């Protein structure tokens, strides 16, 4: 049993390109919001707070694989169903299914890490914090 | 031997997020530009012209798989190396490697189609036009 | 008495820049959505339908003047209060007030036109259609 | 005599909306880049360095007034001519003229401040640093 959180998006005129369909980078914009929304709904504080408590500055993306199944256009209401498909030691797979009513529009599996920051400004993968993992069950 | 075209990007302040690294949907914005730039450099006309000549309204994305290898931040100059890795009957794989000097920052394999539009407004995959394929050699 | 329509926005992580505040072009993204949302709420059809019925392809911006009063950041819920402050012969002034609860965050007066398209592809200002003006009262 | 710096932009397919013209928030994206580019060309360091040396975290916008004179579309090459029209005690007016060859496409006057950050995270206007003002002559 995995927890699923839904994030809702209205497609706007400006999200569409001259072919009158959603310009695809906007799907990733929404999926990134859905990714963070998942943690917010699970009770995880904003990243500038977790930075102090856990050293976590965010969950940058390592790998993403997306399939675009149907087009969408302005006026559409999309619902992104987000869950964690797998927890690993230093990363996790977050799965997003973008639905328009019962129609699958796009789906995406992301590998993300919980990132810390070194003194030189570079970032690195932390062990998945148990407190966050527990919050997401 | 495949043709490779380079598209250059300056990373701007507004492309970065509160973690001070490029917010990842912007990579897809640049890759989409690199994809079209590839065809422009190969001599393919803009899509509103190909629409009349070939029925092609653009090259929408069907599937994309990206790996984020290094972070980038504002002030960075990125060079996206784009080629067609494979031509299929009704689709093609376009490969993009985002470099900062000799460092690989991100790489991405896309499956794209040449799209036509039906009378009802929906889009569909055309056979890869021979004229475009020849232009890209 | 002018009609006011409210458009709601959640500020996302990716809307913010390295200073951790909303990167200002995103305000214009939301205001453009609020502008169209105003017409939708007043019962005006989508632009690809008005194109056939009235020759209107959209309401492009001619002039905008915005004041940024307070910063906003991710997690904020913004409500954009939109009204038409003035109807002119071939243009109108749309006013947007972006609020976070009782706090004014940003305000913006836009001059927009109802645009038609000429045979050569260029656009021009139509007389404000009476049917649309009446719908917005 | 005021110094003018030019920032060059290629308009991309994804910058355009279903009316096939640049979606206007993208002009502000480019103008923000031109604003920072102006300081970079004048020798001012990136904001994360000025934060330590001068307490300056960036130049947020207080007020902007833009006129949209001509439309632009993908394939266009735009050149943004940026200068400081006026220095004030705690703000300055930056002027941007977006040109396509000899045609004025858009112009914009911005009021910006040099921002510092208080301990509570809020930002405020600093006196215009003399070192930066001198660098921009």
From TrEMBL, chains A, B, C, D:
<dbReference type="InterPro" id="IPR029069">
    <property type="entry name" value="HotDog_dom_sf"/>
</dbReference>
<dbReference type="Pfam" id="PF13279">
    <property type="entry name" value="4HBT_2"/>
</dbReference>
<protein>
    <submittedName>
        <fullName>Candidate 4-hydroxybenzoyl-CoA thioesterase</fullName>
    </submittedName>
</protein>
């Amino acid at each position: 049993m995995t927890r699923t959180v839904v994030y809702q998006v209205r497609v706007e005129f400006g999200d569409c390109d001259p072919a009158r369909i959603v310009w695809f980078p906007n799907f990733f914009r929404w999926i990134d919001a859905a990714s963070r929304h998942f943690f917010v709904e699970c009770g995880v504080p904003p990243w500038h707070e977790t930075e102090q408590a856990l050293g976590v500055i965010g969950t940058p993306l390592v790998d993403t694989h997306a399939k675009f199944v149907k087009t969408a256009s302005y006026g559409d209401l999309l619902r992104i169903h987000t869950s964690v498909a797998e927890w690993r030691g230093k990363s996790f797979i977050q799965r997003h299914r973008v639905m328009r009513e019962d129609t699958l529009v796009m789906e995406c599996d992301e590998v993300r890490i919980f990132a810390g920051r070194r003194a030189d400004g570079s970032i690195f993968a932390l062990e998945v914090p148990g407190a966050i993992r527990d919050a997401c069950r």
